[in-house]
Fold this sequence. Notes:
The chain is of the alpha+beta class. The chain contains 13 helices and 21 strands.
Amino acid sequence: xxxxxxxxxxxxxxxxxxxxxxxxxxxxxxxxxxxxxxxxxxxxxxxxxxxxxxxxxxxxxxxxxxxxxxxxxxxxxxxxxxxxxxxxxxxxxxxxxxxxxxxxxxxxxxxxxxxxxxxxxxxxxxxxxxxxxxxxxxxxxxxxxxxxxxxxxxxxxxxxxxxxxxxxxxxxxxxxxxxxxxxxxxxxxxxxxxxxxxxxxxxxxxxxxxxxxxxxxxxxxxxxxxxxxxxxxxxxxxxxxxxxxxxxxxxxxxxxxxxxxxxxxxxxxxxxxxxxxxxxxxxxxxxxxxxxxxxxxxxxxxxxxxxxxxxxxxxxxxxxxxxxxxxxxxxxxxxxxxxxxxxxxxxxxxxxxxxxxxxxxxxxxxxxxxxxxxxxxxxxxxxxxxxxxxxxxxxxxxxxxxxxxxxxxxxxxxxxxxxxxxxxxxxxxxx
Length: 431
């Protein structure tokens, strides 16, 4: 066991994506680890691998504060959950503990209206903004060009997002979008056509590097004018060279302008090939839910998740920015999902057996066990199964996705198929 965290205690809030990996890394390096949330240990992988765990809700700041004092906690972190990260930040500030960002930096990135201004200040291309503010405010209806995108400034998982083709549709959904915002603010922006992508940046000692960029392969759970969810993200993106040329310098400038010493930032955007135009429309000061550090750590032998653990426990991060390679050393990598169409899970067939037969699957997630109810919406909550894959080529990726599709089946309590799957042939294009 390494001992760079010897005699240090780390509190991890929640059991969501990333929490188990944080615990394992901290333990491997000598820290005493604690996980707190409302889940019993049999439903929490993070609690199962931690040194200790407590049944304290991540929203119970008073209870968590007592735990920090009683256990003499040296650092507080969470996985990818915005709610848990914000509470970890608040607790860290209250107890004088290090956290990778402050609330001002967080809002500059996470709040869509502030991020839009920040992009403009640093030359990052973004969609035109028609309005940002209170949903009952003075909206300039005559200046909105349709279709337009309506969304809350601070919600996640695609909640409260609507593509509106007319003023009538915009008025119909505006209150719902505002209700999904904690502060009651919305943003109405230009609808940009093209292909969606995300990119992650690692910040160490105030400097940043592009760690990865993907192509997002959308799927619509329902028919009509609804938001899509990513059925797959494939790395590296097919227009990575154009992104590095046109957007990356401005994004590196934006990362430096944040004034952070250590951290992780991801952006989401759209690329229009015919116009050769990029539009960055939102971001997060955290790792995205796909958790691509799992891929990066295997391919490039660096892990940006480790940097925030180092920072939380007062250790200088040893991440080498020069080892970042968004081209993934020529490999084809992906996070491929099954999305639920809604209903009660009756049977998941062939999952473990299939994963054992495919060496390219380095990790997988099963979010809704048999007997659980899945939502019937158009948000990221529809993601049911995820396969994290590292392949030597796109040919191998296509073969392995096809194999998974053929051998893993999910049925509802009536015996009917209840998932959408990625069409393996799509990886050769962007749509």
